[in-house]
Design goal:
The chain has one domain. Helix content is about 5%, strand content about 45%. Strand 1 and strand 2 form a beta hairpin. The chain is mainly beta and about 60 residues long. The longest helix has 4 residues. This is DUF2187 domain-containing protein. It holds the Pfam family DUF2187.
Length: about 60
Amino acid sequence: MKIAEVGNIVEFKEGLQGVVEKVNENSVIVDLTIMENFHDLDMEEKTVINHKRYKILNHPNEH
């Protein structure tokens, strides 16, 4: 299992995306405000996701 790093964009729960802000032992904290439709979703700005529950989409240094 590859663990995300700060700055990675991850996807979880069938299409939700966020930028990793903090990596904990068993989870990451992500900022969801990067999604274009964030304000339509009625969600908190940040959420915690277990390492088993997301997939890494890209790293900000990759193009």
